[in-house]
Write a structure and sequence with these properties.
single chain, alpha/beta, eight-stranded mixed sheet, binds adenosine-5'-diphosphate, binds magnesium ion
Length: 330
Amino acid sequence: MSGPLLQVEKLVKHYPLGGGIFNKVPPVVRAVEDVSFTVNAGETLCIVGESGCGKSTIARLLMRLVDPTGGRVLLEGNDIASLNKNELRDWRRRMQMVFQDPYSSLNPRLTAGQIITEPVENFERLNRRKREYLAAELLRKVGLAPEIMHRLPSELSGGQRQRLGIARALSLKPSIIIADEAVSALDVSVQAQILNLLMDLQEETGIAFVFISHDLGVVEHIGHRVAVMYLGRIVELATCEALFANPIHPYTEALIAAAPIPDPTRVQLEALVEGEVPSPVSPPSGCAFHPRCPLVQDRCRVDVPPLVSMPDGRAVACHVRAPAGKIEHN
Ligand code: ADP
Ligand code: MG
């Protein structure tokens, strides 16, 4: 296959709000605004940003659980919007999702074995022997003992339940998994185990991940590239290495400065950001970050900064740090 595995082009999602009757333009939540990125086979692309910046909406758009207001999603060159029902089934087979809260995403009345073999049984009938064989195989893949297949989710720990969620996602041998805050509910030590499991699985199978998290420490551990989001837009997209060594967007810089990173050699920057994240119903004009930005200039209040490609290959949307005149990222 040539070209990226997953291609996201100018994706927009506005959720309508009630109460538009007396307004000419009904109010909308601008959850995702003009987001473009690619994911290559075998790669982990992280999406990071504060709560409410649009991360889960992107996950839902990728899975076509909601329809976009604009833009397109292509998997292996095929536009998700053009798929009929059968093709969409096949799409969901190749693109699976792992959720934050394994407990609420696992049917409490099914055994672990039934949970992880259910996706396969939607495509083919399994007899008991086949089902148990498949369940044991999937449990082994995620580091769980085969005996667990007879237990209910309530009889498992948080880490075991998340492994189960991963086993279920793996059952159809997808080429990409969308993981939305997949380790956020877990203790730090369990988080590290799950992240290492995902990285081992990637090495073994060449699976790609879109890994969504609000936690920069987690992103630094698992990511190849990172997209930093602020109020529905990507403000910086770079390799993990470049982003953490040398953040360019003032928001990225502030996020990294605020993150408790256990690295004594890193100089802790003074926290740059004050104030709350504005509402995506009425985002600030120009650059949405301008009211909180220490580098703000007049232009930032008026024009939305485009995502500009930098010489080192990253892309940054900032009038001050990435002035236009360079090639635009698309
Ligand atoms: P994140 O996952 O980064 O926390 P979300 O994608 O869940 O962000 O939400 C982005 C914005 O869209 C938030 O302001 C949220 O309140 C809003 N939002 C999400 N889903 C809906 C919905 N179904 N209807 C209206 N607004 C929504
Ligand atoms: Mg979310």
